[in-house]
Amino acid sequence: MADTLRFDNRVIIVTGAGSGLGRAYALEFARRGGKIVVNDLGVSRVGEGSSARVADNVVDEIRKLGGTAVANYDSVEFGEKIVKAAIDAFGRIDVIINNAGILRDVSFGKMTDNDWDLIMRVHLGGAFSLTKAAWLKMREQKFGRIINTSSGSGIYGNFGQANYSTAKYGLHGFTLTLAKEGEKNNIRVNTIVPNAASRMTEDILTPDLLRLLTPERVVPLVVYLCHESCQQTGNLYEVAGGFIATMRWQRSPGLYGGENIRAEDIKRRWAEANNYTGNVDYPQAHTDTLQKVMGIIEAEKARPKL
Ligand SMILES: NC(=O)c1ccc[n+]([C@@H]2O[C@H](COP(=O)([O-])OP(=O)(O)OC[C@H]3O[C@@H](n4cnc5c(N)ncnc54)[C@H](O)[C@@H]3O)[C@@H](O)[C@H]2O)c1
């Protein structure tokens, strides 16, 4: 089709590309002409063991389709090795899909240091390590597309996932800052919050949902966000079963307690701070907040005293 979004001569690193969502991204980017680094450590859902076969299988699938791919078996914690694999095989890096992930679900009271650290190392540490290793190259070539994978658990919280939700929420903070820092060099960075059938969700979602929520219905958003024609940056998208929507901060009109604000005043007027009706706004930067506060203080000063 004439409007097909192609990735010819683009090099795409997909982490955790041996199964689930990562495998689906890798196959689709390859179908569209991209050269793929299929990264996967081949671990269990809780991050144990390792197997080269997991990445190799996807590379075989891609090659059978006539596509181009190499396997990489390093943990995402070692981003430089993954970048080296891309440079050695293809000479450049255009797109990073930070997708690899594991779970260490346990209620917070029972969470060990290891449950916490491992999740931070893989999700946040992995995205940092790989992105950092590629960042200067993307800046120099004035092109880069990066996807960070968050989760409903990150943006809403979820029982038994204090570690995972912290890391997943943190990944959007990573997106927000890199989107700003990458802007002038045509590096676009976005976050997705997917829902898809995979080994991560096979015992959580109902069979009906699993049938509808295929990874393939998440893939098109990621393809579009990573295409050179897409300028979107710094956004977060929920994506599931073919549904896509963006989300943003909404601020309540708030209350202003003046220079002598007291805890007792806040108690009395608590509903005002938490009320989303009226003059709500949608701040996009810290400076928006400071401007708003200054505006309220100035307006209050200018108000005639009775
Ligand atoms: N499936 C969903 O509904 C859903 C929802 C929210 C977020 N996510 C996120 O989407 C991403 C993909 O999840 P999935 O459902 O496809 O899971 P999955 O378990 O099928 O795939 C994850 C892959 O990452 C690999 N991996 C794990 N640790 C690694 C490491 N240190 N280095 C390299 N590879 C590693 C695993 O071997 C596995 O192949 C994850 O980040 C997950 O947290 C998924």
Q: Short description, anyone?
A:
This protein is an alpha/beta fold and 306 residues long.
Secondary-structure blueprint of this entry?
Blueprint: E1 11-15, H1 20-31, E2 35-39, H2 53-64, E3 68-72, H3 79-90, E4 95-98, H4 113-141, E5 144-149, H5 152-156, H6 162-182, E6 187-195, H7 207-212, H8 219-226, E7 236-240, E8 243-247, H9 263-268, H10 270-273, H11 286-302
Parallel strand pairs: 1-2, 1-4, 2-3, 4-5, 5-6, 6-7
Antiparallel strand pairs: 7-8
Helix pairs in contact: 3-4, 4-6
Bound molecules: nicotinamide-adenine-dinucleotide.
Keywords: Fatty acid metabolism, Lipid metabolism, Oxidoreductase, Peroxisome
GO molecular function, one term: oxidoreductase activity
Family: Belongs to the short-chain dehydrogenases/reductases (SDR) family.
**The CATH homologous superfamily of the largest domain:** NAD(P)-binding Rossmann-like Domain
The CATH architecture of the largest domain can be named as: 3-Layer(aba) Sandwich
CATH fold group of the largest domain: Rossmann fold
Low-confidence segments, given as residue ranges, are none
CA-based shape: globular
Q: How much of the polypeptide forms β-strand, as a percent range?
A: 5-15%
CA radius of gyration is 22 Å
| Series of H and E elements | EHEHEHEHEHHEHHEEHHH
Largest sheet: 8 strands, mixed
The N- to C-terminal Cα distance equals 71 Å
Number of strands: 8
User: Into which percent range does the helicity of residues fall?
Assistant: 40-55%
